[in-house]
Amino acid sequence: MAxxxxxxxxxxxxxxxxxxxxxxxxxxxxxxxxxxxxxxDVTVIDRxxxxxxxxxxxxxxTAALSPADISEPIRRTLGRFxxxxxxxxxxxxxxxxxxxVQLDHGASVPYDQLVIATGSEYNYFGHxxxxxxxxxxxxxxxxxxxxxxxxxxxxxxxxxxxxxxxKALLTSVIIGGGPTGVEMAGAIAELGRFMITRDFRKLExxxxxxxxxxxxxxxxxxxPDNLVQYALRELEKTGVEVLTNLPVEAMTKDEVVxxxxxxxxxxxxxxxxxKASPAxxxxxxxxxxxxxxxxxxxxxxxxxxxxxxxxxxALGLAEDGKPLPALAQVAKQQGEYLGRALKxxxxxxxxxxxFHFQNRGNTAVIGRNAAIFDFGKWTLKGWFAWLLWAIVxxxxxxxxxxxxxxxxxWIWRYLTRQRGARLIDENAAAFVPSxxxxxxx
Amino acid sequence: MAxxxxxxxxxxxxxxxxxxxxxxxxxxxxxxxxxxxxxxDVTVIDRxxxxxxxxxxxxxxTAALSPADISEPIRRTLGRFxxxxxxxxxxxxxxxxxxxVQLDHGASVPYDQLVIATGSEYNYFGHxxxxxxxxxxxxxxxxxxxxxxxxxxxxxxxxxxxxxxxKALLTSVIIGGGPTGVEMAGAIAELGRFMITRDFRKLExxxxxxxxxxxxxxxxxxxPDNLVQYALRELEKTGVEVLTNLPVEAMTKDEVVxxxxxxxxxxxxxxxxxKASPAxxxxxxxxxxxxxxxxxxxxxxxxxxxxxxxxxxALGLAEDGKPLPALAQVAKQQGEYLGRALKxxxxxxxxxxxFHFQNRGNTAVIGRNAAIFDFGKWTLKGWFAWLLWAIVxxxxxxxxxxxxxxxxxWIWRYLTRQRGARLIDENAAAFVPSxxxxxxx
Lengths: 441, 441
What we know:
2 copies of one chain form a homodimer. By secondary structure, chain A is of the alpha/beta class. Chain A folds into 2 domains: 2-122 and 275-348, FAD/NAD(P)-binding domain, CATH 3.50.50; 130-272 and 361-426, FAD/NAD(P)-binding domain, CATH 3.50.50.100. Helices cover 32% and strands 23% of the residues of chain A. In chain A, strands 5-2-1-9-21-20 form a 6-stranded mixed β-sheet. In chain A, strands 13-12-11-17 form a 4-stranded parallel β-sheet. A 3-stranded antiparallel β-sheet of chain A has the order 6-7-8. In chain A, strand 14 (248-252) and strand 15 form a beta hairpin. In chain A, helix 1 packs parallel to helix 10 (328-348). The longest helix of chain A has 21 residues, at 328-348. Chain A is elongated and about 70 Å long. Chain A starts with 17 loop residues before the first strand and ends in a 25-residue tail after the last helix. Chains A and B meet through strand 5, helix 5, helix 7 and helix 12 of A and strand 5, helix 5, helix 7 and helix 12 of B.
């Protein structure tokens, strides 16, 4: 019986190496998989039971996909590797001298090598109170909260007799002009126009506004200018107003103040920059850019040869000395590299070369038939980029079932413009966004 | 532009009849659809934005389907009928003399004919405090809550060092031996066994218990004895313990006391009888069996010729004088009948004959390859009944997209035994079951 197989039956070395991985996002999961079915005793700790495919989370927030389409239980992903143990728990600290990880329910887990892959969270730049009014897009909970507010604002607008209130409810403000902000703005504009035309009786398409606010001089600042210009044109076509050089100064439940302008809104969304998870504090070290933990070329934390940091929480450097961007592909490559490196070092005693990031291309989708790709040497935009974006993202999903389900929903949506997941959850009042969301204990 | 069509443009009669339907479940939606694209001005009011296909809700609770697979925005279903208006609001009262319906946000809606289709809720027989520990299965919120508790109990059991606690966490108690209780018990047993064998390291299949408790002398009391015997055998094969003549006496967060026996449990589920929604109180009339509103043969509420009650909330009588069961097929047929009757009466001035219920067969599914059908004159059980059950339920889904999505997930599950929606929601602590859940105002 599978359940009766004792731990570490398939150990090959004389000593059992214990690798503990904290966080099962792109980075942690890639590291764990690479260490799968080896003689190394691997423990993966996450405070959630599922891995989330964040690049498609904006589609959950805009009612196009269901949460389960883009998430997978960590146990299911790692279940086939008999040397990997999964724990649903929150890490509260690290003791580098005792070589243990502390968990919230009091237990501690010993390690020989520790991998920190705890990701990042949205940065409200000191305005933590804004989090309640403008959720970011990092968890299923937040995506569902945004979906809820968006749909509820339209329902309230339909019932409203006051035309000013109606317009305010039909206004969505997205703060931050990075890929997530652009994707959300495009998707909200499409969803809103469709719903007004098809399903509502007392709303006019002209009453709807989608406003994308960026503090800096341009949106999609990581992309070359020709792609940014294209994105701006496409956003305008979809009906999105893009406002740059407009830092947000104040916010209430239904109003955003930026550059002395006031925007009443039915739904406010935050996408204005991320900061690393507070894992650096566990080690008593100060993070650098955005709280990220500085790492050596082998991804070990500077000063802690047995502790590694990968993904958004790590501050790795590219060959040119610039920090690597906080992207899924960096996280995945670092996880795979580290898994391989640990295997070679621990099992074969081989020395390990430094990590090299291979840029696979940076992408953002603006809306129906419109996406951009930046491959460094060349770029791609338009319908073909959009198709490539869709194919790549379906391919990156975790298994055949999810690929099939997402493909069908996308094809259905492409043909009918219908979005299948327009649900307002019943217990809306109980929805409280919080930076420290976790499972019941 | 669609959004600019004024209300009632397509009216044919000289006078506009205003029909207000409260509740968009099986009954209300069937009535509304039948009145679609006529000269009657129809308003549908519901406190939720979606219609839920409740017969498959237990599959959401056991991680087999996503909420969006079995729910559809009411606006989307009714969007193509230009004479139907949808309002997301909670009804707080009815004024039969002024002929208006009061809404929670203060507005009132006038009607000429009123249809009450507000359904039913679980009956805790005076123990409202049990609702928090043993959620029923009526809303998406409750299904997600049950899924959450079930999965979390297994996660906690994996971490527990105490073997008594481990066993308690792996015990599920289902109260009520009707179809919902049986379906839940079978599905939990299958899910649990699969997860323990495949994904957990420190749990034994023998530690898992699924206990189905029924206060009466037999489970599935609406079914003939040969089917009940079959169901009992199948439940036993799946590992479900069925205990009859055992009324629940007390309950805490993690313990059920019934017939002087104590059952510690990781998850408690309620399915022990329903009562009608409190719509009877709005009319100042006492409901009869389970709070249901007595109706005449034309489904008008006794004493209120312009108010009709259909579905679970109505107490209709069969030809033999017995009350009609609270089933989806009764609700649907009553809704269709009433829609037709109102159309003929209001538009053509025709008199309307009484409602006749046509029994299409009563069914319950016990597990993989096992279901029962009771068609009155003949019965069906086993693999073929299970296949028929699956085909019928896919067919009853609202559109082609949902049919395809559910079929794919079922085929996938049949082949792999994997369940795609094993998600523990992030904000578990905020999940509070409540009988008066509603959307944010």
